[in-house]
Amino acid sequence: MTINTIMAFAGIVFLLAIIPGPNALLILYTSIAQGKRLAFVNILGVCFGFLVHAFVSAQGLSLLLSQSSVAFNIFKWLGVGYLLWLGVSNIKNGLKLSQLKLEPNQRPMNASLISSFTKGLLTNLLNPKIVMFYLSIFPQFISPQHILEQSMILGLVQALVVASWFLVVIIFATKLKALLTTPKIAKWLNYVSGGLFVSFGVSLATTRL
Questions:
Q1: For 45, which DSSP code?
Q2: Helix-helix angle 36-65:147-171, to 10 degrees
Q3: Which single residue of 10, 42, 98, 103 could bond 93 by disulfide (Cβ 3.0 to 4.6 Å)?
Q4: Structural contact between residues 69 and 208, judged by C-beta atoms closer than 8 angstroms
Q5: Are 206 and 83 spatial neighbours (Cβ–Cβ below 8 Å)?
């Protein structure tokens, strides 16, 4: 695994992080409705979820990729399809001008640190898109000889990248909500990220074991 590999992976996960999804919506909601402190705990739960995903996917992939180039190609084309699907979905979302739904004036609810951590963890673990990401994209960035170690490294990279973005979301929660839900900004954010995901998918299709 090279620094270029890690940077390429970080670029993909950053694009995933900035597109509003379940994790981002949870952080944004918590920071506005319940306070920044609990939103920070949400982030810890989400990040721990990435490490769990990395460990679990590595255990399954190690049995396949260490022995079969056919398995690699299957996962490669799953990854291609997944990235293309993400790209097309984002472009379609741009056309529909999808917006986040959040009530910033809603009264804060009582929540403990444990429940906030659990909420972040479960929101991550139960997201099928993240499961698909780990099963289909990871084989392109790790070597069959070091699946567990490199999977955990990439899981940590994803956790750090996503946490960094979510910290920005918390600090500028109100302004970012207004920015990300502005139809014009949301439209072009989806268009640009969609085009980049499609290009990642085309590039991935040319990789070989």
A1: H
A2: 160
A3: 98
A4: no
A5: no
CA distance 171 to 83: 30
**Residue 28 token pair:** 């944004």
Matching residue, tokens 């302004």: 175
Tokens of 148: 């567990």
Per-residue DSSP letters for 63-123?
Answer: HHHTT-HHHHHHHHHHHHHHHHHHHHHHHHHHHHT------TTSPP----HHHHHHHHHHH
Residues 115-173 pLDDT 10s: 889 888 888 887 667 777 777 777 778 777 787 888 888 989 999 999 999 998 888 77
Q: Which residues of the chain have pLDDT under 70?
A: 33, 61-69, 71-72, 75-76, 79, 86, 97-111, 127-128, 174, 176-182, 186, 189, 193, 200, 204, 207-209
d(C-alpha 95, C-alpha 151), whole Å: 35
Which of 193, 45, 38 lies closest to 127 in space, CA to CA? 45
Q: pLDDT averaged over the chain?
A: 76
pLDDT of residue 209: 54
Note the pTM of the prediction, 2 decimals. Answer: 0.65
Report yes or no: 58 and 151 within 8 Å, Cβ to Cβ.
Answer: yes
Q: Which residues contact 199 (CB under 8 A, 6 or more apart)?
A: 87
